[in-house]
Design a protein that fits this description.
Length: 424
Amino acid sequence: MSPLDMIDEILDILRRRWGLIVRVTLLLIAVAAVLALNTPRTFEALEVIQIERPVVSEDTVEGVGAVSSARLLQTIEQRLFTRESVLEVAEQEQLFADAPGLSEDDRVALVRGAVSLNAVAAAREGYGDDGTISVVRIWAVWSDGETARDLAHIFATKTLDLSASQRLETAQQSLDFFKLQEEKLNGEISAVEDERETFRNENILAIAGSIESLRSEISTINTRMFELDQQILTAQGEIEQINSADRTSEVAKLRAQIQTEALQDDIARLEKQKSALQDNKTDLEAALARVPVVERRLSDYDRSLTQLQNELNVVSARRREAETAYALEAQDHGGRLTVIEAATVPEYPTGRSRKTTVALGLIAGLIIGGGLALLLEILHPVIRTSGQMTRRLGLTPVVTIPSVGEAGRRNDWRRNKQPPLGTL
């Protein structure tokens, strides 16, 4: 079959089945029109927020920008879409005034599905991702354009307010934490200093001098005790000499007794001095034995104090940074959020328009109608022309007899267009 013959047959089918095609097309156009009318129209509004960098750089004040904007935005989004916040917005905007019987769960689900936040990451510095966000897009989709705009604006305003309050709250919490840490470390340092001073006072002898000085004092005491022993022995020898002497007169005996008593008093005095020196020597020896323990304990105290003081210095520096960060946030000099594109009332609804839906129905009707016409021709094949007989049967008709009937007699124009009853 040549292309021209195929075109002729297609045109012939269309002439015979144009009524079916038109009916199917009109039916699908009607269906598409009903769908287009019943499909709710939705409008989409957009508000764009830019996250500005802090006025004071993060290298100058480490406390500023300690929380990444990605984490901050995540926290804000969680607070934005809480049940209470969503219901408050729905009540404020009277979103469901036409559906009073709608449950709170359905209202919350509809609002959450209608509003979305989309964050755009900032350009990276180096190879690391610091979680910095440059732009936040807030989309709102609703059946009314003004309501969609109001929703986008309300959630954008809430985002700005929550960002400011969240950053200020974070700065306040950091400042309070470092203040508590500073007070705690000061208390620990005072406690260690008091404990060290008490221990030092209890072991004053072991701290008064070094080991050499203690040994020197003990040596001096030993020398002094040796001298006292010599004096005691000398006095005892004198007493023995006095007692061994033969005295007959009473005066001599009385004089000897007086000398003996004086020497005994000297011996008692020397013994007392020796006992005092012995006690002092015992204390010094005990202190000398405790010197390593005391020095080690004092070294532990000093090491603890040094460590606590270093921690205090770090915490004090962080506390000053937190104070600076809090002051910057309180003065709105931190990383701020600014609306760079306010939401407007959308002019056209989103999605497919009604005209497009009807046009698709028209195209579908033509395609389906043509398909049905072709299917009917395939299911009921009829040889209508001599060309078809030649192509299909390989026979060339000699005479073509037109179809004659009552209807043909009544309508000449229709009779002339009837296909032949048969061919020979």
